[in-house]
Design goal:
Elements (H helix, E strand, L loop, with lengths): L2 H25 L26 E2 L19 E16 L2 E8 L8 E4 L3 E8 L10 E2 L19 E7 L4 E6 L5 H6 L3 E7 L9 E10 L9 E2 L4 H6 L4 E4 L12 E4 L3 E10 L4 E6 L3 E5 L7 E4 L1 E4 L3 E8 L4 E7 L3 H5 L3 E7 L14 H4 L8 H12 L4 H15 L1 H4 L17 H5 L3 H8 L1 E7 L2 E7 L7 H12 L11 H9 L10
Parallel strand pairs: 1-2, 2-5, 3-11, 4-9, 10-14, 13-21
Antiparallel strand pairs: 2-3, 5-7, 6-8, 8-9, 10-12, 14-19, 15-18, 15-20, 16-17, 16-19, 20-21, 22-23
The structure holds copper (II) ion.
Protein name: Copper-containing nitrite reductase
EC number: 1.7.2.1
Catalytic activity: nitric oxide + Fe(III)-[cytochrome c] + H2O = Fe(II)-[cytochrome c] + nitrite + 2 H(+)
């Protein structure tokens, strides 16, 4: 290169350099505040464990263990039990879950980067299956799976150093792996960065999972696992914390206005990816994918199967904040709904008020569907009373029918006919169950007013539910009374309909 060319090239380079620097400063004044490269596993070994051994505090969901508060690496002992047990998956529905620590998701484990974790996995003697554990926070083939294969009545032990900070899923990896995961064998382990996470007022543990039962959604009784539905990725339930209503009503996550809340959210899968969203909140921070960086001001964050995220937000106004998978049929028709309830004074300058109304969250807003559960239990023993059917039907009516026909069955003039004191029902009470199952289309006259619309078939309801809702409607608001049994509902479902709405 001749000297002229060389000096031109140099000048151009200098111009580029200085221009580049200047622009960068202007564009991004916060650059200095960004976290540095953590160095990953190569910098994750913070030396040998110091001090006495620490027994890890494990918590059941939705609780999170306290921060480790440690400034140096330690040897941490974890004792986790595998328990196979029947638990409710929805009201009046049970399922045989396989669990880490007796809950779905499994116990929350919290350690600090650099810790040496001595992991004891015990498989209870009454288990039918062998199990193991693959922790995504482990550096080493299988994440611990090969070292932790444990037959019923046995204990296994392995040790790992937590080299990478982050929020990690753990799960069983015993064949058939999909089945072990589908039965609830997953949980979260938080590996705190050396400096810890910024303090907040409340921390909660929520984990999504998809479930596959032979019966349809809310079909009562004990429901076995359905391998075919699982392979087809057609879940019957999509749930937060392993059972419908785990975090609603009396079990809603409590918080107060003015508090900052942190959610540790995992997705066990086995199949679905979660579009995790909290209705009425914006995440101030999301440590997306459970990693070391946070994004700010996020509405919905994607949580892959076998992945996790941490999110912080501050509560400004009171009310019910609804956690959903925003693949929204999963929320309203498969159970993927939880509630965080903030108590405290209104702040009308920020929000004018009014609770999320019953229409939005339907019967899931209620403390529980206890009456539905009682009715299911009585139906099984063969002594279901009319009162129990009415009580169960009342709870199901809310959110299913009340959206259109209104909470007291009064209807909405010109749009939805009344069910209260309906002369249409009185003329032929049998029609109620038929209309629920097959829908209703075309002109009808109810209490002297004409309607010509379309009620879609409520085919998502089980025979139980149709029977109980019909019985509730027949025995309410001046209607003629009567009773519909589950068997009658099943017959009506099989019969060709006279009322059917289009497309049925
Ligand atoms: Cu297992």
């Amino acid at each position: 290169m001749n000297s002229l060319l060389r000096s031109v090239a140099l000048a151009a380079t200098l111009a580029l350099l200085s221009g580049g620097c200047g622009e960068k400063k202007n564009d991004d004044p916060s650059a200095a505040a960004k976290p540095d490269d953590t160095g990953g596993s190569a910098k994750g070994d913070l030396g040998p464990p110091q001090g006495a051994d620490v027994n890890a505090v494990l918590t059941s969901p939705p609780m999170v263990p306290p921060a480790t508060g440690r400034k140096a690496p330690a040897r941490v002992i974890v004792q986790l039990d595998v328990v196979e047990k029947d638990m409710p998956i929805s009201e009046g529905v049970t399922y045989t879950f396989w669990t880490f620590g007796g809950t779905v998701p499994g116990s929350f484990i919290r350690v600090r980067q650099g810790d040496t974790v001595v992991f004891h996995l015990r498989n209870m003697p009454d288990s039918k299956m062998p199990h193991n554990i693959d922790l995504h926070g482990v550096t080493g083939p299988g994440g611990g799976a090969a070292s932790s294969f444990t037959a019923p009545g046995h204990v296994s032990r392995f040790t790992f150093k937590a080299l990478n900070a982050g929020l990690y899923v753990y799960h069983c990896a015993t064949a058939p792996v999909g089945m072990h995961v589908a039965n609830g064998m997953y949980g979260l382990i938080l590996v705190e960065p050396p400096e810890g996470l910024p303090p907040v007022d409340k921390e909660y543990y929520v984990m999504q999972g998809d479930f596959y039962t032979t019966g349809k959604y809310r079909e009562k009784g004990h429901q076995p696992f359905d391998m075919e539905k699982a392979i087809d990725e057609h879940p019957t339930y999509v749930l937060f914390n392993g059972t419908e209503g785990a975090l609603t009503g009396e079990k809603a996550l409590p918080a107060k206005v003015g508090e900052t809340v942190r959610l540790y959210v995992g997705n066990g899968g086995p199949n679905l990816v979660s579009s995790f969203h909290v209705i009425g909140e914006i995440f101030d921070k999301v440590w997306f994918e459970g990693g070391s960086r946070f994004q700010e001001n996020v509405q919905t964050t994607l949580i892959p199967a076998g992945g996790a995220a941490i999110m912080d937000f501050r509560l400004e106004v009171p009310g019910s904040y609804v956690l959903v998978d925003h693949s929204i049929f999963r929320a309203f028709n498969k159970g993927a709904m939880a509630i965080l309830k903030a108590d405290g004074p209104e702040n009308k300058a920020i929000y004018s008020g009014k609770e999320v109304d019953a229409m939005y969250i339907g019967n899931r807003a209620q403390p529980s569907l206890r009456a539905v559960e009682d009715a299911a239990a009585s139906a099984q023993t063969g002594d279901l009373s009319l009162e129990q059917q009415v009580a169960a039907g009342k709870e199901l009516f809310a959110g299913t029918c009340s959206t259109c026909h209104q909470p007291e069955g009064q209807g909405l003039e010109g749009v939805f006919p009344p069910l209260a004191k309906s002369d249409f029902i009185a003329a032929n009470p049998k029609r109620v169950a038929e209309i629920i199952v097959h829908g209703l289309v075309g002109p009808v006259k109810v209490n002297g007013k004409d309607y010509n619309s379309n009620m879609p078939p409520m085919s998502q309801l089980t025979d139980d539910e149709v029977a109980n809702i019909s019985t509730y409607v027949l025995n309410s608001w001046g209607n003629p009374g009567g009773r519909v049994t589950k068997a009658e509902a099943a017959d009506i479902r099989k019969a060709q309909s006279s009322t059917a709405s289009a497309g049925h």
